[in-house]
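Supplementary notes for students who missed Thursday's class. We covered one full example, reproduced here. Read the sequence, then the structure, then the short commentary at the end.
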Amino acid sequence: MIQDYVALNDYPKASNAAAKITEIEPKTKENWLTLGNLLQMQGLYDAAAEKYSSALDVDPKYKDALYRKGISLMAMSNNTGAIELFDQVLAIDANYKQAYNAKGLVLEAEGKYADALAAYDNGSKIDPTWSLPMVNEINSLFAQGKPNDAMKIFVTI
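Structure (token representation):
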């Protein structure tokens, strides 16, 4: 039923259905993650972060919930909290490329360009075919006034 609502882009109804499932099965971390993801898709980042916390109550090392909660914190401009969560994800799984990319975005927002570029680079090393961290690196280099460095990457993708 949830997927039917998602297919119709009716995220409020999908969220209501997911919430009912968490009431029935509160010890299933994936249910909390699904509910958090649906709330996040609606821009309800604070509510989503609470649901990810519920998933983490079930499994404190649930890397997908840590990552998605970090995304919510990032959206709420809680950069310190977001970086802490991305670092927790990477401590659990050093190959979680999305955490490197998201961490790079937060570091860049804080003006920590060298650290951001390193994070993007780590994501690219994990999956050289994944272009998102390369695109973010290009944008960062342009923002720093380094168009030649940016173009060296740009022509490779």
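Commentary. The radius of gyration is 17 Å. The chain is about 75% helix and 0% strand. If anything here is unclear, bring it to office hours.
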